[in-house]
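Pinned message: reference record for Cysteine-rich CWC family protein
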Amino acid sequence: MNCLMPTEQDPGRCPLCGRGNACGLADPTAPVRTCWCFSAQIASGTLERIPKEVRGRACLCSSCQQRLQEEQAP
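Predicted structure (tokens):
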């Protein structure tokens, strides 16, 4: 999987893989303004894998979150 290094991060796209991240907060037309990550357990080490220049601008997709969690598992 290639890591994208965009100059401007689309909040509806995962900052690592560029696929849709299913974030309801990023979609102004979503009937419910929530995100799958609100109920997910995400380790701080996972978030640190997001490049600094795009950190905090968009949610990871659930696939990248799961992959990173598995990579960090002992």
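Pinned by admin. Summary line: Residues 1-6 have pLDDT under 50 and may be disordered.
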